[in-house]
Amino acid sequence: MSIMSYNGGGVVAMKGKECVAIASDLRFGIQLQTIGLDFDKIFQAGPKLYVGFPGLATDTQTVHQRLKFRTNLYELRENRKVSPKVYASMVGNLLYEHRFGPYFVEPVVAGLDANNQPYICAFDLIGCANAPDDFVVAGTCEEQMYGMCESLWKPDLGPEELFEVISQALVNACDRDAISGWGARVYVIEKDKVTVRNVRTRMD
Amino acid sequence: MECILGIRFNDFILLAADTIDSRSIVVMKHDVDKFFPLSKNLLMAVCGESGDTTQFSEYIAKNVHLYKMKNDYELSPRASANFTRRMLADSLRSRERYNVNLLMAGYDEVEKKAELYYMDYLASMMELPYCAHGYGSYFVLGCLDAYYKPGKLPSGVV
Predict the structure, then answer these.
(1) Which of A148, A153, A143, A101 is nearest to A125 (CA)?
(2) CB B126 to CB A28 under 8 A?
(3) Is the pTM above the cut of 0.80?
């Protein structure tokens, strides 16, 4: 069995009009056995910056902790919060440092920059960045998510519509993947607030 | 594979482990103690590779004790579990990894709640209401999914 599908899971992020949304499923499983139902793969990296780490669960936790260390040092030295582009650069750098013994995660970064413009970026496990204008997906159900996102996403969605679109994309993609799902959590980041919602999915 | 299981209730945690040490079909020892107390309110149950279990658990137990000696207060269950995860994760990508699966149960005196941590040999950690390692998990988890309630146990039902 592939290392990237040992634990399973999926994360998707989408751009909207002055907002971004990032969502992940909540399953923690080991191969085909489900162990936990509250394993959120998304972590907060700044007031309007979130990052998701789908892939091997131990590396999800390790990479998050290593990045937290680096961003803490950055914020102490620079005396300001890290911006999404800089954070994405740090993620890519950390992953490529382990080019020949990589962390088995494919991070997804989503945030609003200083002008409240949306920014999303996805990486492969060795740090190749991809920052498009529409959406990014990662995880064991990424192919299903590509299909859902391509059909549902439109440019300039407002926060409420973006929430609906990203929820439907994630839920339906996870339903077609045996090792993703078991609940979902969606973060919608706007210029003045962040809304976190749990979304009901098929619990199988 | 050996089975250890844990169930968290509101004020306490039940941890159980089998007492067999075997190599495939041959049972080497019937009376193995798989529990390692880390402090007054912290207990770890370990299963996995024979030597690794003892070495790793003693290492963690002694470090938790050292913290208490240095700082005059104990590590909380959450801190101990995260420390254990860090040690296991560091060993994972080093010369030889510790092949241990463990459950850590603790009662946090400050937060006044019981916490049960599940950790597999790759150092993925989760705080769970109930969990099990080994082949026993296939039988037990389904049962607990159906009947688990976090309140007090009715007397005599374990």
Answers:
(1) A101
(2) yes
(3) yes
pLDDT for res B13: 94
Q: Would you call B138 an interface residue with chain A, using a CB distance cutoff of 8 Å?
A: yes
ipTM: 0.91
**Which residue is it, tokens 């159906």?**
B146
Q: Are B123 and A30 inside 8 Å of each other by CB? A: no
Q: According to the model, what pLDDT value does residue A21 have?
A: 97
CB contact under 8 A, A101 and B120: no
Q: What is the pLDDT of residues A142-201, one digit of tens each?
A: 999 999 999 999 999 999 999 999 999 999 999 999 999 999 999 999 999 999 999 999
